[in-house]
Amino acid sequence: MSNVPQTPYPGYDVLDTWNSSSWNDATREVVDRRLREVPERRFLSEDHYATLEAVVARLVPQPDRPGDPVPIAPWLDHRLDTDGGEGFRKASVPPQREGWPQGLRALDAEARARHGAPFTALGAEQQDALLHRVQQGEVQQGEVEGEPWVGLPPDTFFSDVLSAALGVYYAHPAAWSEIGFGGPASPRGYVRLGADQRDPWEAEPRQTR
Question: Which of 59, 142, 193, 195 is the most buried (most CB within 10 A)?
Answer without folding.
Answer: 59
